[in-house]
């Protein structure tokens, strides 16, 4: 039986779902938006813990990789909901990115993301930990992958964040090599 968040209220009327929250009513037109809103309400927070544990597992990471690489049998909304489970907690996201197995899953996830809003959400959650990831061999690969696959506006956000911590990252043994790789991918 699914857990339901008692704080959420909503009703379905005349083909559109009106979802009430503290900011007023947000009309979601169409089935896809209703499904996405329902998934956020019905998804218990412990599922994010399970996904992050699988991503860091020696064998479980292959399961999550295959989910992101799947072309049939899974919708973009379902993939986005898994991504939101991964990025929900910054500490778990940092641990996954620094892990030997988790970094591979993150790179495949970044390659297969289609929704621009999801890309922005991933960048927003990674922004506070970019400097820490750049100083880690595995985390640096995730940031390099972000630079490879993100559009120019999001690349600029990453590069601005790197510029803030440039001296700190460049004087670090691993960070120095990652800075060089970043500049090669940005054609600087």
TrEMBL record:
Instruction: Output the InterPro entries linked to this UniProt entry.
Output: ARM-like, ARM-type_fold, PUM-HD, Pumilio_RNA-bd_rpt
Q: Which residues form the PUM-HD domain?
A: 1-188
> What cellular component terms from Gene Ontology apply here?
cytoplasm
> Can you supply a Gene Ontology BP term from the record?
regulation of translation
Provide a Gene Ontology MF annotation, just one.
Answer: mRNA binding
> Which keywords does UniProt give here?
Repeat, RNA-binding, Translation regulation
Keyword Plastid on this protein?
A: no
Give the protein name, as stated in the record: PUM-HD domain-containing protein
């Amino acid at each position: 039986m699914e857990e339901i968040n008692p704080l959420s209220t909503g009703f379905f009327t005349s083909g559109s779902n009106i979802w009430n929250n503290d900011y007023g009513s947000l009309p979601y037109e169409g089935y896809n938006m209703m499904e996405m809103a329902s998934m956020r309400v019905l998804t218990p927070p412990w599922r994010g813990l399970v996904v992050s544990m699988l991503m860091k597992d020696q064998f479980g990471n292959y399961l999550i990789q295959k989910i992101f690489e799947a072309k049939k049998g899974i919708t973009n909304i379902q993939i986005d909901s898994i991504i939101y489970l991964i990025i929900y907690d910054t500490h778990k996201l940092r641990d996954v990115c620094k892990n030997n197995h988790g970094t591979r899953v993150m790179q495949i996830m970044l390659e297969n993301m289609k929704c621009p809003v999801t890309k922005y959400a991933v960048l927003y959650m990674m922004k506070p930990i970019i400097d820490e990831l750049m100083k880690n061999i595995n985390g640096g690969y995730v940031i390099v992958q972000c630079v490879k696959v993100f559009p120019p506006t999001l690349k600029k956000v990453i590069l601005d964040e790197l510029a803030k911590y440039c001296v700190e990252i460049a004087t670090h043994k691993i960070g120095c090599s990652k800075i060089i790789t970043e500049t090669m991918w940005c054609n600087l």
